[in-house]
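Worked example

This section walks through a single chain of length 455. The input is the sequence exactly as stored; nothing has been trimmed or padded.
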Amino acid sequence: MILKYLRAACCLLCLLPLAARAQSASTEAYIYRNVTVIDGTGAAPQPGQDILVQGERIVAIATHGTLPTEAMAHVRVVDLPGRFVMPGLIDSHVHMATPPNRVQAEAMLRRNLYGGVTAVRDMADDLRAVAELARAARQVEIPAPDIYYAALVAGRPFFADPRVGAASKGFEPGTAPWMQAIDDRTDLRTAITLARGTGATAIKIYADLPPHLVAAVTREAHRQKIMVWAHSAVFPTRPAKVIAAAPDSVSHVCYLAYQAQPVMLAAYEDRTPVNEAMLAPEGDDPVMVRLYQEMLRKGTILDATGSLFVQFDAIRKAHPERKPLRCTGPTVIRLTQQAWRAGVAISTGTDHVAGPEALWPDVYEELFFLARDVGMAPLEVIRSATLIGARAAGQDKDMGSIEPGKLANFLVLGKDPSADIRNVRSLEITVKRGRAYPRQDYRPVTKVEMGDGDD
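Given that input, the structure is written out below as tokens.
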């Protein structure tokens, strides 16, 4: 691994002066020296490394002190002995604009960035608002992760949901380009083209579509070179049929358990929980074995959102009057453990937002869920939260691991996250696209920003 980085360093550094002359005067270079690199691939940590950053990208990584000194002119040096560097975190399931609230969204994004999150997947909202947030983040007008977002399609019954009206004001429900009702009369080529025009990275297949339309939407989206992010059960479409359609990722490990139910729910609006007694009482469930084998064969990523269900169990203990979710926490843990053992790629999505009292991003709870409840080793959790998250967003050529040529998206930590994933809380600096965001500069989210009243 080190030899690979050294070769890349020698090759790229010899071109650095020419590259630097081609850059604008505002483009700066930094060397982060003498760190332990955890690259996000699952490989063992590499101590005593120097990371050279030019503008937005990592130029080279090499053993401390071996980068050619003649290429180091005008490079700012950041000495970090005893520190650990890992890729920026990716939350693969957020919602920021249902309904749009710019102040709240910016507060959430600020908490994410200063907490080490350098990219998120927005899983369907009012894309007028989300696209503007994505633009502002990319232009460094606001402190925020990069945002990749989905345009939603669903069957017509879903569009009675009040969330649709909140996320598509000014349009008849089901007619906004980012939130379209689909049936057998729909011209899918036009529908996907309209969705692409929103700047969306993906189509999200949400609810109330039969198997042939799930397959047809996925096929047309892929023909038009846009990703497909789907619920793992689309109701009445069973998980096996969703997976057979070959979306790039599926969300909510809980929904996969509907495959074991003798009668599938006819509509998304039927909130009947999974009958957990239908799963095998112990060991790997044979129905899930077949699902996970197919996901593995197709390369489908699982956006598990497990911490959501575990946390809700705790909430219901204090508030038993609240309606249960579709699965209990123990079942979600078991299903995620089986997916992990099967080799399914798992990303770290949250689908929930903490209040103003939370000092760290929501995705931390998903990291802790994978380590504490599922039993994944810290290096595997880091890979899920970085490289797998980048794949889920279709951005793994540019982010998700620390290597020459990729964006300089990484975290500087005071303690080793490969020894204990909770050490992500020793964050000192988030670097996103080459810009440093020291944790000490973080301004916590206020109650007013989150709409909870006066501070």
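What to look for: The chain has two domains: 2-86+402-440, 89-392.
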